[in-house]
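U., I forgot to send this yesterday:
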Amino acid sequence: MKMTAYKCALFVALLAAVSAFNPSASYAGMGVNPSSLSFGSVSVNTASSRSVITLTNHGTHKLTIQQASSNLPEFILTGPSLPLTLRNGQTASFQVVFEPDSANSFSGSLSFMTMSGPINTVLVSGAGVGPQPSPTQKYLLSTSTNSLSFGDVIVGSASGAQTVALTNSGNSSVTVSQVNTTGRASASAVFRCRSALRLGRVLRWVLDSLQRPQGA
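Result:
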């Protein structure tokens, strides 16, 4: 009976010694918040806004943070000098920014290592976006008609006026500075100034006479 009591007392003493030697057996460990971060889309060679990661000692024993690191250089991690010891309930804050060096998607992790317990990680992601290329200038001009018919006109007389519309459907402005006619007959166009024809705009001018010289 005495031997049994002695064995029980010895077991309790050994258990207490093990608990004292291994603090992780008596506290919950370190909490990391948040567990993941997404930086969305960030311009190449531009730093994102800073995000904060908070480490908390939830246990009853001191906790020493030995190392904090990022596995990708695009995720830049900064914080207090290490090693850093936290008492029960104490916190430490680290900052991370995302600075992509190319127009690609990035997924990495931040690691926080303590003297005891598992390595805590925070998953991070983001995408680098490059500048949008300038659109190629296009000048697309079209006329409302490809031909005009004035019918029969008395020699030496003027016909009725007809209208031609010029449309710019390109992505750049076009300046129309002159309108010419060719052929045996002559035509005059009411067009007295240079006009910048912007995208989607329509320019109209009137052919107000068509004369065939006598004997032509």
